TrEMBL record:
Residues 91-102, 203-217, 274-287 have a biased composition (Polar residues). Belongs to the SEC23/SEC24 family. SEC24 subfamily. Keywords: Cytoplasm, Cytoplasmic vesicle, Endoplasmic reticulum, ER-Golgi transport, Membrane, Metal-binding, Phosphoprotein, Protein transport, Transport, Zinc. It comes from Orycteropus afer afer. Residues 750-833 form the Sec23/Sec24 beta-sandwich domain. The keyword Iron does not apply. Pfam families: Gelsolin, Sec23_BS, Sec23_helical, Sec23_trunk, zf-Sec23_Sec24. Residues 8-19 have a biased composition (Pro residues). This is Protein transport protein Sec24C. Residues 964-1036 form the Gelsolin-like domain. GO terms for cellular component: COPII vesicle coat; cytosol; endoplasmic reticulum exit site; endoplasmic reticulum membrane. Residues 75-90 have a biased composition (Low complexity). Coiled coil: none annotated. Residues 846-945 form the Sec23/Sec24 helical domain.
Length: 1096
């Protein structure tokens, strides 16, 4: 067996390893350039992951730092228990301090008896956990109308109340008593960067414990509620003024209509906001809260507000009758807190059920037996033991899995294990792969499966003795016995037709109809391909890519090219019978780039010329995909098609489409048809593609409706990507297109893949979301799976779970690497199980929850009216929070909204999903835009959905000019904007630079090289390169933001009060949206009302 990973000399893996050079870029797992299995793997197994090396040598204590116990399951009595039993207490290393403690608390009830009858059980919970205010309770009496001082004067002890506080403090070091993303303990100064968005008054959040957030919405039960409801119900009027999506909509939006009147804020005795901006229309949110300087923390706090950053003092009551936006949970604050609390130490995966740091926190991961959160994130790391509990809580149990995720250079990619001809060791019954949770028994001769409890024989060649704890003595020499993630070399049994695969191929298929030629696309693309072909993905240290390439051009007929190296010139073959597509040549169609370079270059030079005078406007589409797929089939390989397409395929051919865009369907029961494909042709075609391992990436350049919902079917079902450049013009869009193209072509991809998620008894995977195809209920088939693609998996109970043994997930991905090697990538994750609902709520991850809920809703629009989908989301959210309130929160006034600490952002984020373009489009969001976004979100990981739904807004001139760190973000609301400042806003797809009207002239000069605000070109997409610190800083920041995202974000400069500002405001998601989406404050009030209804 071997692992060819770079190996630091010496233990713990015992053998030296070949170093390997270029993992982190575009190779799989950092394997060296082994191309032919299995020979290259003969030599050296071994090689610990860097993080791994830091563990003590075997036998000493490979355990999670704070306990002496081994990270991997050890011998407890066979019987499937045990594994992590010994980590129960005090074993917390940079994990959520509360987790483990609570589970082990003596007060927790025996399995099965507890939590289901709320009235009975909850008091028990509370009693056993001590006095309410200290733990589950109210951390903050964020009274909207009145901040009640409850916790502040008498801050609870620093512990969480589940035991001696000291335990926690010592266990978690740097964040003594905070909860997961909690607020500050008493006497803990808020980090400097926290400022914005932090409650301007001193809500007890500062001083209280973080288990829950509560506040009293204004006029609870009072007059405001009805109006809230009216405003929030989807589909009731509010076809507001258009809202645009700059990157997929071409024309600037019309002016705003007057704001809807239903969204009544409290009639304000409020001074107008932004009085310094004449003509600046007051936004809805202005009605809430006292008038403030947009950036309270940056100076001039509003009258009466305490200074930011000061120690929490006694709360300062606000004027009544208003819900202060500063007093409701702030995404910015939560993100900052987590960065400060959890960004400094590595996340070590040895402890079961640890909630990882947020996706917005930079942290390193050390694999000690569970998969890194870069590969798997869960909605909760402590799942209810019974389905009754799960139903009561309504918290979806889901995992967001990114099997081939990129890792930072500091983290080693999964080791490749070679078990030789016998292949990976698996459970005979459930077929789970060998993993750290398997229990070896009978002196090592047998092992009990941790998933199905089946007892299996250990094959002689795999036998090893056990130590006195029952652990194999070679456990730390074998990745599959000690790590959460690793790969197995697959044997021929895992290959199609019992034959090792050939290296994959890329086929470039270029629309050469009139629009494509006229826009300059074809010339640009052909020029770019000449150099891009040198950067095809390659394995490890391979000198050249094993991927072969082929070329097709098309309009309503297809042109194939023979680019065989022996030819002096490329040869074209035309296929006009698009109804019965075949590939006219085999030899010379798919070639090695280096061998055929001259011919390829010649072809790419000729294509733009050949079609320069074309008058052909019609295109076909399905036959193009068919041709590519047939070519791969003929070559007996998997691969990827890169399609560059401009128009609705109306030419006579299979898959011909008609324009069926009809905006009148919006808000009707037929709206769902806009998201459904208009013909079944593409599903059928996709199925054939999947069978061939043919993944399709689609680049669209539409000037009008092209029916993205139908064209994206094949990419969607084959694990491909869709890119859309509306009204493409070379001068405006080439940077974005070329950047996306380069990244897409170079991306590491696994081909012809099948993913299976196994679970231990008690739960099973029941639903899947993402870009893939399923022909049965368990196997996720992916013609291609790249490093950015995510699959979200939902689990349901099919039996009781056990607190002791927890729940296990194993994701196995079988795929063909870029070099044609067949591999299995395994990710394992152990979760805790609970009999107390409070434990569930304490270990949730809201960002992951939102990822799941958005995908669920976005799929729902295919079958249900959009309004129903929205209403269901709201109901589910209310049920989740009501269940918490009823079962886990201490008794308190009905007027208080109490949110679990881990879910305090659920309302604000959910509101962003509700008013997203798919679920509540503005008038200028096209049908294609909605289908496009819907498709994109389906494959997003948690970090991407997080920033997509709640954009980052970064002030540029407030932080020191020489500061190299990203400026702290501010909340996405207009009232946070200062007209004397400049901001960047990004959501992973769009990037704006907003310039306030009163920005200093020097700043304008430094950034734009013009003399005044009025001279700045609105809509500018490139900043001039100027030699001054501010210009450099802003350009560096923009580059860094782009580098963090999987797609290129085109910059749009927006001037305050300019017409383009409407685009920008669409992303200020805490405000009421022009399409009728509620403001955060209003939504929170509405949510509170829903919760109260459920409770009464
Ligand atoms: Zn099994």
């Amino acid at each position: 067996m071997n692992v060819n990973q770079s190996a630091p000399p010496g233990p713990p893996y015992g053998q030296p390893q070949p170093v390997y050079p270029g993992y982190h870029q575009s190779s799989y797992g950092g394997q060296p350039g082994s191309t032919v299995p299995p020979t290259p793997y003969g030599a050296s197994y071994n090689g610990p992951v860097p993080g791994y090396q830091q563990a003590p040598p075997p036998g000493v204590s490979r355990a999670p730092p704070s306990s002496g116990a081994p990270p991997v399951s050890t011998a407890q009595a066979p019987g499937g228990q045990a594994a992590y039993g010994q980590f129960g207490q005090g074993d917390v290393q940079n994990g959520p301090s509360s987790t483990v403690q609570m589970q082990r608390h003596p007060g927790s009830q025996p399995f099965g008896s507890a939590p289901l009858a709320p009235v009975v059980s909850q008091p028990t919970v509370l009693q056993s956990y001590g006095p309410p205010p200290t733990n589950t309770q109210v951390t903050a009496q964020l009274a909207g109308m009145q901040i009640s001082g409850a916790p502040a004067p008498a801050p609870p002890p620093t512990g969480l109340g589940y035991g001696p506080p000291t335990t926690l403090a010592s266990a978690s070091g740097s964040f003594p008593n905070s909860g997961l993303y909690g607020s500050y303990p008493q006497g803990h100064a808020p980090p400097l960067s926290l400022a914005q968005g932090h409650p301007g008054t001193q809500p007890p959040q500062h001083s209280a414990l973080p288990q829950a957030s509560s506040f009293t919405p204004p006029a609870s039960g009072g007059p405001r509620m009805p109006s809230m409801t009216g405003a929030l119900l989807p589909g009731q009027g509010f076809r507001g003024p258009p809202v645009n999506q700059p990157n997929h909509v071409s024309s600037p939006p019309p002016q705003a209509l007057p704001l809807g009147t239903q969204m009544t804020g409290p009639p304000g005795p409020l001074p107008p906001m932004h009085s310094s901006q004449p003509g600046y229309q007051l936004q809805q949110n202005g009605s809430f809260g006292p008038v403030r300087d947009p950036q309270p923390n940056y100076g001039s706090p509003y009258p009466g507000a305490p200074t930011f950053g000061s120690q929490p003092g006694p709360p300062q009551p606000l004027p009544p009758k208003r819900l202060d936006p500063d007093a409701i949970p702030s995404p910015i604050q939560v993100i900052e807190d987590d960065r400060n609390n959890r960004g400094s130490e590595p996340f070590v995966t040895g402890v079961r059920g640890q909630v990882p740091p947020l996706v917005t926190t930079n942290f390193l991961v050390k694999d000690q037996g569970n998969a890194s959160p870069r590969y798997i994130r869960c909605t909760s790391y402590n799942i209810p033991c019974t389905s009754d509990m799960a139903k009561q809580a309504q918290v979806p149990l889901a995992a967001v899995i990114k099997p081939l995720a990129r890792l930072p250079p500091e983290e080693a990619s999964p080791y490749v294990v070679d078990h030789g001809e016998s292949g990976p060791l698996r459970c005979n019954r459930c077929k789970a792969y060998m993993c750290p949770f398997m229990q070896f028994i009978e002196g090592g001769r047998r092992f009990q499966c941790c998933f199905c409890s089946c007892i299996n024989d250990v094959p002689p060649q795999y036998f090893q003795h056990l130590d006195h704890t029952g652990k194999r003595v070679d456990a730390y020499d074998r990745p599959e016995l000690s790590l959460g993630s690793y790969e197995f070399l697959a044997t021929v049994d895992y290959c199609k037709n019992n034959k090792f695969p050939s290296p994959p191929a890329f086929i470039f298929m270029i629309d050469v109809s009139y629009n494509a030629i006229r826009s300059g696309l074809v010339r640009l693309l052909c020029e770019e391909l000449k150099s891009l072909l040198d950067f095809l993905p390659r394995e490890g240290g391979a000198e050249e890519s094993a991927i072969r390439v082929g070329f097709v051009t098309y309009n309503k007929v297809l042109h194939f090219y023979n680019v065989k190296s022996s030819l002096a010139q490329p040869q074209m073959m035309v296929v006009s019978d698009v109804a019965d597509m075949f590939v006219p040549l085999l030899d010379g169609f798919l070639v090695n780039v280096n061998e055929s370079r001259t011919v390829i270059t010649s072809l790419l030079d000729q294509i733009p010329e050949m079609f320069a005078d074309t008058r052909e406007t019609e295109t076909v589409f399905a036959p193009v995909i068919q041709a590519g797929m047939e070519a791969l089939k003929a070559a007996e390989c998997a691969g990827k098609l890169f399609l560059f397409h401009t128009s609705l395929p109306i030419a006579e051919a299979p898959g011909k489409l008609k324009n069926r865009d009809d905006r009148k369907l919006i808000n009707t029961d037929k709206e769902k048809t806009l998201f459904q494909p208009q013909t079944g042709t593409y599903q059928t075609l996709a199925k054939e593609c999947v069978a061939q391992g043919c993944c399709v990436d689609l680049f669209l350049f539409p000037n009008q409706y092209v029916d993205v919902a139908t064209l994206s079917v094949v990419p969607q079902l084959t694990g491909g990507s869709v890119y859309k450049y509306a009204c493409f013009q070379v001068e405006n869009d080439q940077e974005r297109f070329l950047s996306d193209l380069c990244r897409d072509v170079q991306k590491v991809v696994g081909f012809d893949a099948v993913m299976r998620v196994r679970t231990s008894t008690g739960i099973r995977a029941v639903d899947f979301f993402g870009a893939f195809y399923m022909s049965n209920t368990t196997d996720v088939e992916l013609a291609g799976l790249d490093v950015d693609k995510t699959v979200t998996v939902e689990f349901k109970h099919d039996d009781r779970l056990n607190e002791e043994s927890g729940a296990l997930l194993q994701c196995a991905l079988l795929y063909t690497s870029c070099a044609g090697q067949r591999r299995l990538r395994i990710h394992n994750l152990a979760l805790n199980c609970c009999t107390q609902l409070a434990d569930l709520y304490r270990n949730c991850e809201t960002d992951t929850l939102i990822n799941y809920m958005a995908k669920f809703a976005y799929r729902g629009v295919l079958n249900s009216p959009v309004k129903t989908v929205r209403d269901n989301l709201i109901t589910q959210c209310a049920q989740i929070l009501a269940c918490y309130r009823k079962n886990c929160a201490s008794p308190s006034s009905a007027g208080q909204l109490i949110l679990p600490e881990c879910m305090k952002l659920l309302p604000v984020y959910l509101n962003c999903v509700l008013k997203s373009d798919v679920l509540q489009p503005g008038a200028e969001v096209t049908t294609d835009d909605r289908a496009y976004v819907r498709q994109l979100v389906t494959s997003m990981d948690v970090a991407e959905t997080n920033v997509f739904f709640y954009p980052r807004l970064l002030p540029l001139t407030k932080s020191p000019i020489d500061s190299t760190t990203e400026p702290p973000a501010v909340r996405a609301s207009e009232e946070r904007l200062s007209n004397g400042d400049i901001y960047l806003l990004e959501n992973g797809l769009n990037l704006f630079l907003w310039v306030g009207a009163s920005v200093q002239q020097g700043v304008v000069q430094s950034l734009f090289s013009v003399s005044s605000f009025s001279h700045i070109t609105s809509g500018l997409s490139v900043l001039p390169v100027l030699d001054n610190p501010l210009s450099k800083k802003v350009r560096v920041l923009i580059d860094s933001l782009r580098a963090q995202r999987s797609r290129y974000m085109k910059l749009i400069v927006v001037k305050q009060e300019d017409k383009l500002e409407m685009l920008f405001k669409h992303f200020l998601v805490e405000d009421k949206s022009l399409s009728g989406g509620a403001s955060y404050v209003d939504f929170l009030c509405h949510m509170h009302k829903e919760i109260r209804q459920l409770l009464s």
